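USER: Study each token:
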Amino acid sequence: MSQALSRRQQGWLMTAGGALIISPDALLIKLIALPDQDILLWRGLLTALGFSLIVYARHRAGFFDAYRRCGMTGIGVAVLFSFSTFGFVLGNQYTKGGNVLIILASAPLIAAVLSRMFLKEHLPRRTWVAIFLCLLGTSLIVLDDAGAGSWIGNGFALLAATALAANFTLCRTRPGVDMSPMLTLAGLIVALVAFVISGFGASLTVPSPESMVWLVVLCLALLPLGFTLIQRGPLYLPAAEVGLLMLMEVVVGTLWVWWILAERPSALAFMGGAIVLGTLLVKGLMERRLERSRITALKSPQETLKQGRAVC
């Protein structure tokens, strides 16, 4: 049990670290300033290359085995991850960014329902409370940018949230199998579809040198590293908790835009960010305290037994 509890800590660190690494995503997309189909094409190609380099660095001689172990489940993970990418990018094109983020914040709730239905996973009450508090906090962050928007855009955002939640839930069906290598395939799917949408390259534009630098930083480095860590989260945590920790990206990403582009968040946004980060901090401290209590409870009978043997 102590080993399982240690793995849980690893899951928290990996997922939270991954969310922090990808947090400049929205900022860098603003700095790149390319049409959506161009961003999707470069994002797909560069992330596929970045993911494959990470797989090679981790597995070396076992490079191809890392992909084979994922099996058909891995293909499903890749397709779902590509759907979440399309939903996020196209959702921002057809509706307000605030709507997209609010709907994306429902991913942990969707993951909790899917895990309950298909995996029979029971979440403790504290996790449900944390999910609803973070959903409230995220809503406050983007309240100024939210509105009726477009049903098409809201639908794309819902597709992104559902695909993300389903991805994490699907990973839980293969315990002990790392599905992160299949994000390479997801990048290739995104690039291929973007190439077709662009009229097989007819409407693509050549990025400026500055935009190309930001594309390389974001898509070849930050996204592959961050999402590799996040995709490994379901190895250690329930799908709902992985989605919950990803909300850190919304909070920190808002701060990045404020710092670099001087787009000052509203007072409500600050309050929402405090609710999300405070909730995650309190939940993390509670989990750590419970973990220590369980370890102590496990050690006590063993120590009593050792003392009895010493007396004999």
